[in-house]
Every structure is written in structure tokens, then in C-alpha cells.
Amino acid sequence: MSAIINNSFRKFQADNFIGSFSTNNMYLAIGKNTAWSGASASEYTETTPSDNNIPVPIDTTASLYTHYNDMIAAKRITNTSVSHVVKRVDWTSGTVYVEYDHYIDDIIDQNFFVFTEDFRVYKCISNGAGVASTVKPTGVGPAIIETSDNYRWKFMFEVQQADVLKFITTDWVPVNSPATSGQTDQANTEGAAVDGALEHIDVTAGGTGYRSNTGTAQSGSTTTTIVLAGGASNTDDYYNNMTVYISSGQGQGELKTITDYDGTNKIATVSTNWTTIPTNASVYEVMPAVTVSSSDGSSGVARVSGVTAGVVTKVSMTNVGTGYRSATATVSSGSGSNAVLAPRIGPSGGHGKNAVAELGGAYVMLNARLIGADGSSDFPVGDDFRKVHLLINPKESGGAAASATTYKLSELQADSGKIIYTEFRAPINRSADSTEDIKLVVEF
Questions:
Q1: Which one of 117, 191, 228, 282 is CB 3.0 to 4.6 Å from 217, fit for a cystine?
Q2: May I ask the CATH architecture of the domain 83-197+350-363?
């Protein structure tokens, strides 16, 4: 028998941990003002630790009492100082980023999203068949962003200014979902997300021998025809069953299937009437058709949008559809062969619906700032500390539940509450004018 812990379970645990800060009193405690030295059966296994050779903590029953004996002071961490975080992947020109693929195992471990100097995070929908990214994604709209280096990006969110100092580090970026009232752009992305959408179809093999023609239409088109450019084929029926797409000018955005082609007069008859009849200013693309099939989703419409020397290079969506859980796509006309397409189905809810779940919500950061003698001398200065703990629901020395912002050791009941996190560090010296900005990252 075999089993795994799904990433959704890890996020579930992380969500619950963050939620616990609203229902429990969580404290960051510091301790140990003496140097690391000597063996310890309760705390670590090293026999000769020092302040330059920090021991690794072990979890024994006895260690709880030792930690309490070493404790110096504690400061409460509120729910405004805890956040989901995702790994920081800075966008760097010349890097090949992993494109989103719903078949990748543990995709959250891949570099399939980037963080830019604008404090924005973008998900890579397509990496242009594995080329290096050279154009930084910009923009905050809900539509997929196509850059000139053939990458396609989805804007996910922008880190709020108030969270920059608290949670951004060289390794981590804060993330939340749903958007707060101040995150209008992220809210727009969430609202535009489509569950089960086909945002992208990858060309994994371009095949050979596919026909195409691009140009500007000539005058004389009708509700059911388009007159192709003079350079179009002279052969009758040459473009039959292929698609014609108006990329700009009159009729822009319309996609039709060619049912008959008159090579002598360059007239292509289309399957259904044009909503707007093309003119001699309409730029068109005649390309092989794409057939999308699925047992669950519907309304997805794709077209070949790039053919070079008979090789299919790109497929674009004209309708992403909805409800897809599986799909196949084939190049179904154009007289070529051996092109292979791979539909990429968005995550539950659609790309951008839940940034935390989509980018790896298994990590939580806690932030606590210790400023000078913080709390009327509860935190002593002129001394150092080497231990950092998370202490949940301790009691005051009189037996009441601890709820104040800060405590010194003598104000807490010995051995009360539970220590749920322990970190050993090199000595950190505290002075009256010092601030320790402590960030802890917990992985689930």
C-alpha cells in the first residue's frame, strides 16, 4: 500500500494554523542568555556545542522544562502578524521558467511563477516552448499577458505596502486569498477566473506540411465570403476546412471555418455569416483548424495561430470554455501531419481564483518585532538570547490565561502552555536602541 500527503492537506493545516491565532494566545518567547556549552541529554545530541557551533534541537519531554528555565520574556503575536508565504522567485532575464501544467507532480516545488521589482507575482502559463524569458511581465489586468518573448503570464497579486516590511525576505513573499478591500487588482483577477478553463494549449510537436496564409483582405467580401490577398493559393479547395481569423480591422476577433475556396478569384466561403463583413483593411490569418474534445468541459474554442515553414508553432484560445477536467486537442485540417497538442486545464476555480492554493500555501510566516525594552522593561536590554520559541496559551503567575502584549519570565506560570516551535540561534545581543525583526517560517 502507498500513500501521499496531498498539497491540499498541507494548505488545510496551514489555514488552520493561521486561524488559530484568532482563537488562541500565541507568544514568541526568547531565552538562554548563557553560551552554548557542554553536552545535554534533553536538548541536543552534540557534545561540544558553542556560540560558533550551534546545536540542533531535539524534541524530548525533558526539553520543555529546560526551555522554560531558560526563558527570558514573551511577546504576543496577533493574527495581523501572520501570513501565508510562497517561495520568492525573482524574475530574471535569460531564465527559462516552468510553465503551468496540470500533470506536473508537486508543481508548487517548481519555478512556475515570478516576483517582480514592482512587488507583483505572475504565474507562467506558457514559456514559448521552453525559451528564456527576456521581457518582464507587467500589468495588473485579469487577462493573460503575452510578452514579445512568447511568454504568457497571469497576474496573481501585488504585495500590499503594509506587508512588505513584515513578510518579504530574500526567500519568501506573502500571499493571501481572497483579496482584501485594498487589493482591487487581485480581486478583479479572482472574479474573472473560470473554473475548468482551457487557458492554454501547448504545442509539444509541430508536425510538418501544414498550410497557412496571412495577409490583408481585398475588396469584395460578402456576408458569407472573404477575398484573400493576392498571394493566396491559386488552387481550388486549397484552404477547405481551415479557419480564417480576423486579427485586426473590420471584423476583428471573428473566427470562421472555410467551407469552399475559389483559387482563381481568391474567394473563401465561410461556414456562418460574418457579424461584420471584412473590408480591404481587414488583416486575416488562414490556419489549420483545432478540434477540442472532452467528456466534461464545454465551449472551448482554439485556433492555430502560428505556422512556420509548415510547422505548427502556436495555438491560441478564442474561448477558454468552462468545466474542463480533461481534454484532448488535435490539428484537424491544413493537410499536414504529426502535430501534437496538449491542453492545459486550469486549477480548481481557474487561474488566479485562489493564489494561496495555486502557488503553494503550505508555508506560514510569523513576524515579531522586539523594540528596545519592549513592554515597560519586560524585555531586558544589555543581554543576549539564543533560543526562540512559539508558546501557545501560557498562564500568568496567578493562574489566569495570559493575554497581555508582553511578559517577563517571572510573570508567567512555570511550565504553562505548550511550546510548539523551537529554534536555536547564535547569540543576539539586545540594547536599548535595538530592534529585532524576527521572522519564523513554518512548513506544513
A1: 282
A2: Beta Complex (2.170)
